[in-house]
Design goal:
This protein is mostly helical. The protein has two helices and two strands, in the order H-E-E-H. Strands 1-2 form a two-stranded antiparallel ribbon. The longest helix has 25 residues, at 31-55. The chain crosses the membrane at residues 29-52.
């Protein structure tokens, strides 16, 4: 569930940090710092997604009824 959002944040952060060549400050907001924050949140979302899916247990349902 979080993998898609994590990949999106990671890509947006990478584009802001490495591909954007314009003014890195818009209305007092440092875009480079915002890009690094997006990269960090994207990596965190991907890692948490893998950790949460690995913790799921398989449920086995036994039906012992006789017909």
């Amino acid at each position: 569930m979080y993998i898609g959002a994590g990949i999106f944040l990671l890509l947006v952060g990478l584009v802001i940090v490495f591909a954007y060549n314009g003014d890195m400050s818009i209305a007092g907001l440092d875009l480079a710092a915002l890009g690094w924050i997006a990269i960090g949140l994207g990596v965190l979302a991907i890692v948490l997604s893998f950790l949460l899916t690995s913790r799921r247990r398989e449920t086995v349902v036994r039906d012992d009824r006789r017909y």
